[in-house]
């Protein structure tokens, strides 16, 4: 295993371990499994981008694009173009879910029920942090 592969694996593990701090905030841990899978795909895209090798900015851009597609696939599939591609309706749906999640956070005490909005907030937050960690530490 190369040095960058070890760094990518360490960044993945560090992000998931940090995400563990969110477990008491919401009911259930299914979101963490989902975040782990999506983060794994994102990290894999980064590893492939570095292996090709792509420019650093292109690697991070590819990871961000794949992350948007994954979030669309999971949270806004019914509004996506061809069920996968994030079009205007899918982006609007993701925005609606984030607004609903913000309202839910203000309504419920911890542990909050895992509504779709809160789920998008925690899963999306973990994946976004994972992208930043990967970009800063590995790429």
Folded structure, characterized:
This protein is an all-alpha fold. It has one domain. It contains five helices and no strands. Helix 2 packs antiparallel against helix 3 (56-75), helix 2 packs parallel to helix 5 and helix 3 (56-75) runs antiparallel to helix 5 (116-137).
Round the mean pLDDT to the nearest integer and report it.
94
**Uncertain spans:** none
What's the helix count? 5
Percentage beta strand? under 5%
Q: In the residues, how many domains can be counted?
A: 1
**Could you describe the largest sheet, including whether it forms a barrel?**
none
As a whole number of angstroms, the C-alpha radius of gyration is 16 Å
Q: Tell me the overall shape.
A: flat
Q: Got a strand count?
A: 0
Q: Which range best describes the helical content: under 10%, 10-25%, 25-40%, 40-55%, 55-70% or over 70%? A: over 70%
Backbone structural class? mainly alpha
Distance between the termini: 16 Å
**Secondary-structure element series:** HHHHH
Question: What is the topological layout?
Answer:
Elements: H1 3-19, H2 30-51, H3 56-75, H4 88-107, H5 116-137
Which tags fit this structure?
single chain; mainly alpha; 139 residues
Please summarize what this structure is.
By secondary structure, the chain is an all-alpha fold. The chain has one domain. It has helices at residues 3-19, 30-51, 56-75, 88-107, 116-137.
């Amino acid at each position: 295993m190369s040095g960058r592969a070890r760094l990518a694996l360490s960044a993945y593990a560090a992000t998931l371990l940090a995400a563990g701090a969110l477990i008491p905030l919401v009911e259930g841990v299914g979101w963490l499994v989902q975040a782990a899978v999506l983060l794994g795909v994102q990290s894999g895209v980064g590893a492939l981008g570095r292996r090709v090798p792509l420019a650093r900015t292109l690697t991070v851009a590819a990871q961000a694009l794949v992350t948007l597609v994954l979030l669309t696939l999971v949270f806004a599939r019914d509004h996506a173009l061809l069920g996968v591609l994030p079009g205007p309706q899918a982006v609007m749906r993701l925005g609606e879910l984030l607004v609903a999640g913000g309202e839910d956070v203000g309504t419920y005490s911890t542990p909050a029920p895992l509504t779709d909005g809160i789920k998008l907030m925690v899963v999306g937050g973990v994946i976004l942090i994972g992208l930043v960690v990967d970009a800063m530490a590995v790429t």
